[in-house]
Every structure is written in structure tokens, then in C-alpha cells.
Amino acid sequence: MIDVYTDGGSSGNPGPGGWAFLVRYPDGSLVERSGGCNHTTNNRMELEAVIRALEFLRNTEDVIHLHTDSQYVQLGITRWIHTWVRNGWKTSDRKAVKNQELWRRLLELVQRFRVQWVWIKGHSGDPLNERCDGLVQAEISKIKEKQANSKNTT
Q1: Which among 20, 2, 12 is positioned nearest to 130, based on CA atoms?
Q2: For 107-153, how does the pLDDT look when each residue is reduced to its tens digit (9 = 90+)?
Q3: One-character DSSP codes across 28-48
Q4: What are the structural domains, with CATH classification, of the chain?
Q5: CB distance 6 to 49 below 8 Å
Q6: What are the residue numbers of the active site?
């Protein structure tokens, strides 16, 4: 079993955003990755974190316990997505599903793995969730700093 923790966020919605994931292998070793985007939303970054984690794991045959503090991601992939697909990527009120390209990518990825989805309450003291949040905040800070520096040089 592999434990994966993911997080994403943005400063402003939309605004600069970051995503992060941590992979804990059965031997206890940890791998972490993070990245950011200049103009995005919280939900997009939450999805991006999960997608990046699964892409990183590629072809593992281990069961993946994927921990997310995003009910949007957890409920979206375990409940809502089946209806969206059946309805031609429309919500129950016949509107286009937001972030559809990310949901499609995630759906394709999860079909390659054995994923058990675990929702955890954010900012509740789970050390790996807190570490992911710290990585996300660091990515957002880097983007804000770059934006501030580019304004100062123009």
C-alpha cells in the first residue's frame, strides 16, 4: 500500500495557486513534489495535485490510499463523475461541468490504479496534510514574489 497526500490552493479565487503531493512508500520513504500557476482557482489546484501524484506513480500495482482534504475532489471522483459522464459532462442543472479537462484526465488516470479515496479534514494536525499545505503556500509565495518583482522592474 502506498499513501498519497495531496493539497492545492490559491490566494484569491482566482489568483496565484499551488499544488503539492507527498508519497509515502511501504518502506517509510517519502517523496514530495509541488508546483504552481500564476492565475488559477483552489479547485483546479486540488485536482492538479491528485493528477500530478498519479502521473508520478505511473504504473504501480500497489493499492493507493489517496488522502485529500478536498470534498470537491473526493466526492467528484467517487460520486458525481459517473452522472457527469452519463449526462455528457453536464451537471444536474444541465450546465457544463467546471474543470472538465482536469476531471477527464483524472478519470483516465484512476482507471489505471487501485485507489482508495480518503477524505481528511484540512488543518486538523495531520502532519503529512500539513506538510502538503506548507508546500502549497510556499509555491503561492514564490509566484507572488515573482509578480511583485516584475511590477517593480517595469
Answers
A1: 20
A2: 999 999 999 999 999 888 899 999 999 999 999 999 999 988 888 77
A3: S-EEEEEEEEEEE-HHHHHHH
A4: 2-152 (3.30.420.10)
A5: yes
A6: 7-8, 46, 69, 123, 133
